[in-house]
Design goal:
The complex is a heterodimer of chains A (147) and B (110).
Chain A: H1 2-11, H2 17-40, H3 53-58, H4 67-75, H5 79-85, H6 87-110, H7 119-135, H8 142-145
Chain B: H1 26-43, H2 45-63, H3 70-99
The chains are: A mainly alpha (147), B mainly alpha (110).
């Protein structure tokens, strides 16, 4: 299955722009629908979203905890509240995700190979996540970094 | 105007001629990394297990000379294992807590 996907990717360079745009535009559409749902539903109440498994089981915050509420606040224009809930999701994950999706649309439009992630980012982003994971569970820092 | 064909690109090993060049499977590394990070941040094993599989494919592609970013796949592979182990462990503990009645869905915790 993977090799067929890769062949399709390799062949897509000669396809029409519309065909090349199907995958990246679908990804953008999924992001947009998920954001709209998170904006309209209330992530402060249970029932709409499953709770974080790591938090429920261990009692410690995971690096994504507060991320949905942060996206909810961002979508409502409350940047300060979003930053207080999860600064890493607001400042890193969301901008990088949107940038990657837009870069994918641009390269597909031009018939170029899909965007590459530079190695320094591939190493530093997980490192930042792991540090954030530990730091936000340190009791004296929880008021600032925990949701 | 002469009809001399352009020289083939140097130092581009192609075990399978016509497979699309030695970067044709570089997308595997990118996909694996994105899935691995999503596995850590929100989605647990739902994206962490695919990250392991795609990361493995990426490393294979590098070994076959079809990709140049097997390191990216390696990182996705490792993140996938971390995300899978933690989320499966968490899910098991969670299941035990629910089964024993010591956990209830009262607050939002995502």
């Amino acid at each position: 299955m993977q090799s067929r996907t890769a062949e399709a990717l390799a062949a897509s360079a000669t396809d029409s722009p519309v065909r090349r745009l199907v995958a990246p535009v679908s990804a953008l559409a999924v992001l947009a629908v998920a954001t709209a749902y998170t904006a309209m539903a209330d992530p402060y109440r249970s029932g709409f979203f499953p709770p974080c498994v790591f938090l429920s089981a261990s009692g410690h915050w995971c690096p994504g905890c507060g991320g949905l509420r942060a996206v909810h606040e961002l979508a409502h224009g409350e940047v300060g509240a979003a930053l207080a809930l999860n600064p890493v999701v607001v400042l890193l994950i969301v901008p990088l995700g949107v940038a990657l999706a837009l870069a994918w649309v641009r390269t597909a439009w031009r018939g170029q190979p899909p965007p590459a992630i530079p190695m320094w980012l591939a190493i530093s982003l997980p490192a930042v996540l792991l540090v954030f994971w530990v730091v936000r569970n340190i009791p004296s820092l929880e008021p600032y970094l925990a949701p | 105007m002469t009809d001399v064909p352009p020289p083939p690109p140097p130092s581009a090993p192609q075990p399978f001629p016509g497979a699309g060049g030695n970067e044709s499977k570089n997308s595997l590394g990118t996909i694996s990394l994105v899935l691995g990070i999503l596995g850590l941040v929100c989605c647990g094993f739902f994206t962490a297990i695919p990250a392991i599989i795609v990361g493995n494919k990426s490393k294979q592609a590098q070994a076959e000379g079809l990709a140049t970013n097997g390191n990216l796949g390696q990182i996705g592979f490792i993140l996938g294992i971390i995300g899978t182990v933690l989320s499966v462990l968490g899910a098991v503990i969670w299941g035990i807590l629910i089964a024993t009645g010591s956990y209830e869905f009262t607050t939002t915790e995502f």
